[in-house]
Design goal:
- The protein folds into two domains: about 200 residues, Rossmann fold (3-Layer(aba) Sandwich), CATH 3.40.50; about 200 residues, Glycogen Phosphorylase B (Rossmann fold).
- Helices cover about 45% and strands about 15% of the residues.
- The strands form two sheets. Strands 2-1-3-4-5-6 form a six-stranded parallel sheet, with helices on both faces. Strands 9-8-7-10-11-12 form a six-stranded parallel sheet, with helices on both faces.
- It is globular, with a radius of gyration of 22 Å.
- It starts with a strand and ends in a 5-residue tail after the last helix.
Length: about 425
């Protein structure tokens, strides 16, 4: 039976969003949250809750004037990613790793691994701690970890990486090189790409072939909206035609921006400021804005109140994406992406969605790993850094007329790895190309 135990954590959306496309590999289609499963010992739950509450609080506090950046910088030192140059041995465990292993010596995570041990399946996790726990408590099957950032801190490698049997699925070359510097054996690192939602790529059931029929169809309509003066198309007509075929004369939807807020709810005011600037175009049905509140009802209420103050009804020109259930949220989010032209977000795991032909409008970073994600997006040509949200109506439409966002969309489509789910499945179950 080609199934795995799929383990994540519900701390923000990143690790669970990474797990969502892999659920077809999961036993009974279930994603187990290491910090919130049925029967978790109260001592384990308390530790996880403290960690999550502190991170969300400090993420929101970062937006406070003057003191916010300073307070977050102190916290960020513990998860900082060191400069990769000069390349050197970076295998020495940092304080965070030593502290995690100290907690495991006290029994943290043993209950989870004992439960999984009852049915021997490969363990696939989107967070490093369950992988460390599985190895520490002698889980008998293969242990795999999926990495969901473009660069990583030493926290992702175990205490003794040279003797570890944990295998890593990495999204890009930088992470591949970083893990080797952390002491992870080359044979335990697989360059698979990030696991993107299959339903946004192909209609091929089971993803047995390298098809991108859905992705191509959506991108063709998107490019029409992103290249208002056809300047990009005039310069790269041969490339566009070769990769996509003939573009439609008109898009099947108005220019649509999806503003996605992280799980901690930070940066929510940016979305409202952008809507206020675009109000005239929204009323004229030139532009549509979708404000993603995720599963946070308080955030949904915040957006609704903001719309009332601007006298903008939620009548199609502005929508709020909100679901009570996390899986329902991811499902709806992926559906909405098919008619989205610009993904506006801080550079989290959503940075990899550029490979779907979605230009990323980069909001301010929160944390060292997002600084590296931002750098990767810009160097790759997949995204552009936002300007002042109060003047979105001006700078955004200048970029649309110049074709900058159309270029980013094509760059992500051509250069980005799309079949991460298929690559991961092939490694775990040792399948050959079809």
């Amino acid at each position: 039976m080609d199934k795995v135990w799929l383990v994540s954590v519900n701390m923000g959306y990143g690790h669970q969003r990474t797990a969502y496309p892999l659920r077809t590999l999961a036993y009974k289609g279930e994603v187990i949250n290491a910090n919130d499963y049925e029967g978790i010992p109260e001592s384990d739950r308390r530790f996880w809750r403290r960690s999550q509450a502190f991170y969300e609080a400090i993420s929101r506090f970062k937006m406070a004037p003057f003191v916010g950046d300073y307070a977050f910088a102190l916290y960020d030192k513990f998860q900082r990613i060191a400069n990769i140059y000069p390349k050197r041995d970076m295998s020495r465990p940092n304080l965070a790793v030593r502290e995690m292993y100290s907690l495991m010596r006290g029994g943290w995570g043993k209950d989870l691994i004992d439960r999984l041990r009852k049915k021997r399946l490969p363990l696939l996790t989107t967070f490093y701690m369950p992988a460390f726990m599985a190895e520490y408590f002698d889980y008998p099957e293969e242990i795999y970890a999926v990495i969901c950032d473009t660069d990583i801190s030493r926290a992702w490698a175990p205490l003794d990486p040279m003797s570890s049997r944990i295998k890593y699925f990495v999204p890009n070359e930088r992470v591949y090189e970083r893990l080797k510097l952390y002491g992870v054996k080359k044979r335990n690192i697989f360059l698979t790409g990030y696991p993107l939602p299959v339903e946004n790529i192909t209609s091929e059931e089971g993803v047995r072939a390298w098809k991108t029929d859905i992705l191509v169809r959506d991108l063709k309509s998107r490019l029409v909206n992103l290249d208002l003066k056809k300047r990009y198309f005039e310069r790269y007509k041969v490339l566009v035609t070769k990769m996509l075929g003939r573009l439609p004369a008109k898009s099947d939807h108005p220019l649509t921006i999806l503003f996605s807020v992280g799980g901690a709810g930070a940066q929510k005011e940016i979305g409202l400021r952008a809507v206020r600037s675009l109000a005239s175009r929204i009323k004229n049905e030139e532009t549509k804005v979708i404000l993603s509140a995720g599963t946070k009802e308080t955030l949904k209420n915040y957006f609704e109140e903001g719309m009332k103050k601007m006298h903008l009804g939620l009548n199609g020109g502005v929508e709020i994406l909100y679901e009570k259930d996390l899986c329902a949220y991811f499902k709806t989010f992926n559906e909405i992406l098919r008619k989205t032209d610009i993904l506006w977000t801080k550079p989290s795991e959503l940075s990899f969605y550029a490979s779907l032909g979605l230009p990323i409008l980069i909001a301010p970073t929160i944390g060292s790993h997002e600084d590296f994600n931002k750098r990767w997006l810009i160097k790759s040509g997949f995204g552009l850094t936002q300007e002042n949200p109060d003047y979105t109506n001006q700078w955004l439409y200048d970029w649309l007329e110049e074709g900058y966002l159309a270029e980013a969309a094509m760059e992500g489509f051509v250069e980005g790895e799309k079949m991460g789910v298929l690559n991961i499945e092939r490694v775990i179950f040792q399948k050959k190309d079809d």
